[in-house]
Amino acid sequence: MSRIKRALITGSTSGIGLAIAHQLAVAGIDLVLHGLEPQVEGDKLAEAFHKQHGVEAVYVQADISQADTIVQMMEQIESQVGPVTILVNNAGIQHTAPIEQFPVDKWDQILAVNLSAAFHTTRLAVPAMVAQGWGRIINISSVHGLVASVHKAAYCAAKHGLIGMTKVTALELAAKGVTANCICPGWTDTPLLVEQFKAFAREHNTGYEEAKQGLIKAKAPYPDFVSPADIGQLVLFLCSDAAKAITGTSMPIDGGWTAH
Ligand code: NAD
Known about the structure:
Layout: E1 6-9, H1 15-26, E2 30-35, H2 39-53, E3 57-61, H3 67-80, E4 86-89, H4 104-132, E5 135-140, H5 153-173, E6 178-185, H6 194-204, H7 208-219, H8 228-238, E7 250-253
Parallel strand pairs: 1-2, 1-4, 2-3, 4-5, 5-6, 6-7
Helix pairs in contact: 1-8, 3-4, 4-5, 6-7
The protein binds nicotinamide-adenine-dinucleotide (NAD).
């Protein structure tokens, strides 16, 4: 029986998720793109993927901070194109503040999008993966799933939690042809970092470009950002047969940040 390879990449309208979608499409994997952008814009993006790579591509718009919205999204995908057998939980948000000033609504939002959403998509996607005896769950955690930085209580809690949940998923599914892993990027130049670049520029009285370089030097020996396309290549490798025994891991792609 031929294997269905259809990937849902949450948050694939921007940054790392978009780059992952490109790498999977180049390899001929059908896509379910997802984000907050209006349906009409997402449809154009899906059409562009189809034209460029010849893969089937659809877009679903859903705010995944809500559990019931995720249930509806997964039902919509199943009825529109069929089951998802590669799940990339990538959507994520950030907010920085000292813990005693951390806004409670931001805490709730970050835990919902960066952690709970991955629980819901995973629990809903697993039965189809198990049914075909093959599946891949790839969770985009962060270096902040492995180490901490100041002012990132919610983000670090969510990203550490994602690694824990991934390990449990891996244990439960290892004998069923389904792997679950985390990728842990360091600084990657995407819209997620814009506020942190601005804050660094304010605090150090530098320009925006100097702030970007300053942030890199503050954390990692590798003197550049992580390339989103390289993260996409790692996702693609984890989808390959060569990665069938890689499960329950958390892979840094962080320019040496966590080697300290
Ligand atoms: P980004 O802001 O470019 O993309 C985030 C995506 O998530 C967007 O498509 C957005 O629409 C989607 N999203 C956000 N909130 C959502 C919600 N409520 N419902 C549905 N979709 C929502 O950011 P990015 O840097 O590409 O981040 C992707 C992932 O990589 C995140 O999980 C982030 O934590 C992680 N990450 C990023 C970096 C970095 O340096 N940029 C480093 C480590 C990990």
